[in-house]
Amino acid sequence: xxxxxxxxxxxxxxxxxxxxxxxxxxxxxxxxxxxxxxxxxxxxxxxxxxxxxxxxxxxxxxxxxxxxxxxxxxxxxxxxxxxxxxxxxxxxxxxxxxxxxxxxxxxxxxxxxxxxxxxxxxxxxxxxxxxxxxxxxxxxxxxxxxxxxxxxxxxxxxxxxxxxxxxxxxxxxxxxxxxxxxxxxxxxxxxxxxxxxxxxxxxxxxxxxxxxxxxxxxxxxxxxxxxxxxxxxxxxxxxxxxxxxxxxxxxxxxxxxxxxxxxxxxxxxxxxxxxxxxxxxxxxxxxxxxxxxxxxxxxxxxxxxxxxxxxxxxxxxxxxxxxxxxxxxxxxxxxxxxxxxxxxxxxxxxxxxxxxxxxxxxxxxxxxxxxxxxxxxxxxxxxxxxxxxxxxxxxxxxxxxxxxxxxxxxxxxxxxxxxxxxxxxxxxxxxxxxxxxxxxxxxxxxxxxxxxxxxxxxxxxxxxxxxxxxxxxxxxxxxx
Length: 480
Prior knowledge:
By secondary structure, this protein is α/β, with parallel strands linked by helices. It contains 15 helices and 14 strands. It is elongated and about 70 Å long.
């Protein structure tokens, strides 16, 4: 998962859709926080309750689909491990995935090629060498340049924010800047990982070591992507653990002179190729109209990529298998996209958007899981007020699993699907008990030990039900 960076708003279009929704049955828009859908539409949504019960029963039945998402994910991650974009691990896993989707007899199974500049870490290490020796657990950040072959040994400046860096700017030249920024939230704090090297480079730093973006640590460094600003010298950058960042901060504040040795070797390769993976359940009467379910197959090169985002990818394609096995085929098509190169900045999603411009107006809803597949408790939605009211009614159908919360967001609710949301296509993700997600995110700890079979079953069921209902309703979701 990469950070959500963009917001989208179109007030004129929103007003037009609201007025139309008020004038044209069967929909009326929400007003003052209260939904006013006409009874016929509420009744239609409620009529899907038997479908909900059937799907939930099937995924929780040991003679049905119970445990199958977990079993498939565990075999996949155990077989291929981490899946960095541009590596044979990822491409072999895509071949495997294509064979699995075809074996399930899903429709239109194919892959679409994506080209990009790849990055791969090689050997790297860091150590405190003065006033004493201590190895520093670290992970070079994606896109980082290498050090010179002999490495860098330099004095250290420790800062806690960009303002602190600015205040100490006269001390930075020729030194390694260590960021010990407090964790506020991922979206607020990740800017230090993505921009920390460029900001320090402006003042002449020779490298940066950044406190991992996490609220909790067991001496685990967290990987992630970073990018250099134009016009600044590219310097090596890596994440270190919370524990080591705090240690260096304490020692620095006591006036101790610190020196660190850093050696990083990474490889860039142009014209790297990968593939987005596609499967569908074709609609019965309007097959050219699409509801999308998705997750990304790539991961960082640590752990197994089970949580980020193997779980999201596997509840996506397994939701189609559930519907197919139950012979539930909606009016519109449900398309599963297993994105590639998400971690490098939504590369697969942008390529898909570019290649499918002619059919984007036919996308009615885009769904993604990229923030964990823990116990689900509801829906997070980004779209028009009227569409949000429809999703409120859909969420009510999950009362048997206590997943009826419907949270309407004015911001994007996905990573890859952000590129669709930015052009006014409604987006949806599941609310799940992911309070510990960023404990494991982008670390060696992202393994199958994090995943729970029962939670994966329920996430799979919710993806299946939501995509089916929206693809089968007599009306489409109004866009703002």
